[in-house]
Design brief:
Length: 335
């Protein structure tokens, strides 16, 4: 304590050092805190025993969980579903990439013994749905289907025919020739057969959904939008520069295959509506993506990508797998 505050010989003789005052004050404070902590610990213990006494009999009797427990369970379920949905594009790519191939072909429309009126290339996607069987769109398997110019010529007596149709699977340097197996007369669907079924024997067959999908569900679409041009665009710089100006050439596809650059792309979106066997979703696509599988959040194929509407981001169209199953059965019985 400062000497100018306490003066006189008697009072100064009773001077108590400040250090001693602080020490006794600290001892009193510690004792009070210990007492308070002891009371709190006792209260918590009593509360825990009370909760155990209350909930244990209810649990043993199979009583329904409390609202809080139900909310926690729902929240945990929602988090798990969200994690599954976010992981699905990577999951289906890693699991089924090698079973989704790039389809390339040349076709013509004309009359016998005459120069064809139409000779063009076709580009699309196909995926394995059975032993040696590949699902795609009918307008990929029969490129004149849905083409107004070609159909006009066919109505006048011309015929459409394929010069060749092959599929390049990821990881394989050589294409596999395709043969017609079954086509739908009502939907844009077809099933093709690998001419050499042993070439695809080791590939996984994609699982088809057993139940219908509902609007609002998340979807993942795999395929080859923009065809060879799309694959060339995402190739390393040196390869891109070499192939950029011949991206519609079969030799470009063969070179990409030899370099293991035949790789499908994934786009994601929501299922906007289901009308009959038609699926409408907003996962973007482009020509070349026709025939690709549309996956749900469980990694099952719910449809076959078919078309898109220009100027409307939510207007991608697919055909539900319910219409694909009869074609697969028909193709399997043709063996």
């Amino acid at each position: 304590m400062p000497e100018n505050v306490i003066s006189g010989p008697e009072i100064s003789a009773l001077h108590i050092p400040e250090a001693v005052i602080h020490e006794e004050s600290t001892e009193v404070s510690d004792s009070w805190q210990q007492a308070v902590q002891a009371v709190l610990a006792f209260a918590l213990l009593a509360g825990a025993l009370a909760m155990l006494h209350y909930y244990a009999p209810m649990s043993a009797q199979g009583a329904p969980p409390s609202d809080l427990q139900q909310q926690v369970h729902r929240l945990r379920t929602q988090v798990e579903e969200l994690e599954q949905e976010q992981a699905m594009p990577a999951l289906v790519l890693n699991r089924y990439r090698n079973s989704i191939g790039y389809v390339y072909g040349v076709y013509q429309v004309g009359s016998v013994n005459q120069r064809p009126a139409i000779r063009a290339r076709v580009s699309g996607t196909g995926f394995l749905v059975g032993e040696g069987l590949i699902a795609t769109n009918r307008h990929v398997a029969e490129p004149w289907f849905g083409d107004p110019e070609a159909e006009t010529l066919i109505n006048r007596g011309a015929t459409g025919s394929l010069e060749n149709l092959v599929i390049f699977f990821p990881g394989s340097p050589t294409p596999v020739s395709l043969l017609p197996a079954a086509s739908s007369s009502t939907s844009d669907l077809a099933v093709l057969r690998a001419e050499d079924s042993s070439a695809v024997h080791a590939l996984a067959v994609l699982p088809l959904a057993k139940s219908a999908s509902l609007p609002g569900e998340l979807v993942t679409v795999l395929g080859y939008p923009m065809g060879i041009a799309g694959m060339v665009a995402k190739s390393p710089t040196g390869i891109y520069e070499r192939l950029a100006y011949r991206h519609n050439d079969i030799t470009a596809a063969s070179e990409l295959a030899a370099l293991s650059l035949i790789r499908p792309s994934a786009t994601c979106g929501h299922l906007g509506d289901v009308v009959g066997d038609k699926l409408i979703y907003d996962a973007p696509t482009a020509h070349g993506g026709s025939g690709g599988p549309v996956f749900n959040t469980r990694g099952e194929v719910i449809g076959v990508n078919s078309a898109y509407m220009d100027g409307f981001s939510g207007g991608t169209l697919g055909v539900a797998v319910e219409s694909l199953r009869p074609l697969i059965d028909r193709a399997q019985h043709q063996k």
